[in-house]
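Example 3.2
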Amino acid sequence: MHARSSIRKGLTAIAEQPALPLAEIAWRWCFAVAGATLAAVTALEYLNSIPVSWGERLLLESEQPLLALAALAYALRGSAARLAAGAIMAGTAMAILWMLFAALGRLVTLQALLPLARMAYRPLLGLSFLRAELFLAAVLAGLGALILAGFAGPPGDAAPSVVLAAVLIACIWLVWALLNWLLSVAAIFVARDQQDTFGAVAAAVELVRSKFGEVVLTSLPFVLLHYLALAAAIASSALVFDVMTRVSPEAGWALVAIAAGYFAYADFLYITRLAAYVELAEPGGEVAVLPVSEKPVPELTMPAAQPESLELKPESI
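Structure, written as tokens:
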């Protein structure tokens, strides 16, 4: 199957099931709301745990920025351990929450794209676990890159360190994006072929190896549309921010609308691309029926009648 055909069939599948993009948006936004709520609760609990004396409160209420910052820094002293513990607990809870939401959401969407396939939740949960671990590894690698770049530059000149950090983080992001994409494609083989987690990853690698050109041509339009939408959202947000600072702060609600529109459009592109991959992963071509070689049918011939041998009977003598 060619890339154009897979994209067309993917769009057709989405057009025939308009609830499918809504389901993709629903599970992603439900996780976003739950994660934001968890982060907000963690931040509020951390702030409530900080003891503030009457002098620090007086400085905070003085409406002087420097005095307020000094009071805040003095109040936060010694609370880095609590902040780190809260961040680790909140991050772990959000990772578990994302794994559950992602596996369940992918189960529902693949059930709609492959109605005849028998779904399996545990391998999809395994893929979500691998993706979460991959994201954690990318974050730790990014922190390591920043530390390494800080030691690499000469003292007093931060330009080489900044360039090295940017290059390392770009490489880490590229590797993470490719591996994360591969794990997302592997979910198709879990649903369609009843593969386990690592078997599905191997099947996704085989798909890329056998149909590399078609996979690239199928992905490229969605990538371009995604980054065009991102550029448009950034430009629109910059314009709205300028209006907020010069005309009216109430224009900030437009930022919420821009963000919601961008994320909804990105989710729509994601599920449409997944539908195209489902079509691309189908075995191409029909089963070739080998022509039967025509052989002459042998004619049925009756054996020639043999002349009866003359026997001398005793009565004839």
